[in-house]
Write a structure and sequence with these properties.
This protein has helices spanning 31-40, 97-110, 130-143, 158-163, 186-192, 209-217, 233-247; strands at 14-16, 26-29, 48-52, 57-66, 71-81, 88-92, 114-119, 151-152, 156-157, 170-174, 197-201, 221-224. By secondary structure, it is an alpha/beta fold. The chain has 2 domains: 14-81, Hypothetical PUA domain-like, domain 1 (Ribosomal Protein L25, Chain P); 88-247, SPOUT methyltransferase, trefoil knot domain (Alpha/beta knot), CATH 3.40.1280.10. Helix 2 links the parallel strand 6 and strand 7 (114-119).
């Protein structure tokens, strides 16, 4: 006798819904979400769908009605609670659009709590479109089975960011200038600095001398090296997040 297949199947479509979900509730989907299920996934009545809301967790639903441009789902029950997220922010200067979208996706996958675009002196004319950036975060969370999304702050000038920096949050500053001195081991810095944290990644070309000095002058600033090789800004962001997650996050 064949074994009973796992239910719900891992292949069930999974979507983010910007509304508080609850068990035994009917949900009408319209717009892009409905189009995806109806036209791309060719969903049928009775088939399972997973929803998460970034508020309470993830839910299993099934389709009860199909329309031409909308459909109704009935929530059967909660499958997972909202996940705990390590208290790490990513502060990253905008770079070329596709590469910055990639950074947002990977930051979401790796589990940062917040992403903050930062305007620096050497930031190129790469406008940040929050809606596009958020869409890439949502897609990454849907595909990687995240139940929580990072917060996304508006673009802020580095000077303003530093002036209003919280006293209880460490600022790990990826400083390519300190490797030659043999200082700035990220691993040692993580051992010495526990608690809420942020990682600051500069633009292509790095920080100016005045910006470097202003960051270093902050008591919460911790200058760290990302190794002997020069990294592009997007690579540096992912490398730094990974190191922090392994040392202070939820990878241990």
């Amino acid at each position: 006798m064949p074994a009973t297949p796992a239910y719900p199947p891992r292949s069930a479509p999974r979507l983010y819904l910007d509304a508080r979900l609850d068990e035994s509730t009917e949900i009408r989907l319209e717009g892009s979400a409905a189009h995806y299920l109806l036209k791309v996934m060719r969903i049928k009545e009775g088939q399972p769908v997973k929803l998460f809301d970034n508020r309470t967790g993830e839910y299993l639903c099934h389709v009860t009605m199909l329309g031409k441009r909308d459909l109704i789902l009935l929530i059967d029950g909660k499958t997972r609670e909202l996940e705990d997220v390590p208290d790490l922010w990513l502060l990253a200067a905008p770079i070329k659009k596709d590469r910055y979208h990639w950074v947002a996706e990977k930051a979401t996958e790796l589990g940062v709590a917040k992403m903050v675009p930062v305007q620096t002196e050497r930031t190129q004319n790469n406008p940040v479109k929050p809606d596009k950036l958020r869409a890439h975060m949502i897609e990454a969370a849907e595909q990687c089975e995240r139940t929580a999304l990072p917060e996304l702050d508006p673009l802020i000038k580095l000077e303003t960011l530093l002036e209003n920096w919280p006293a209880d949050r460490h600022l790990f500053f990826a400083d390519e200038r300190i490797h030659e001195s043999g200082e700035g081991s990220f691993r040692k810095a993580l051992v010495a600095h526990d608690g809420p944290a942020a990682i600051l990644i500069g633009p292509e070309g790095g920080f100016s001398d005045s910006e470097n000095a202003a960051i270093r002058a902050m008591p919460q600033s911790v200058s760290v090296s990302l190794g002997p090789r020069i990294l592009r800004a997007d690579t540096a962001a992912v490398a730094a997040i990974s190191l922090w997650m392994a040392g202070r996050g939820d990878w241990s």
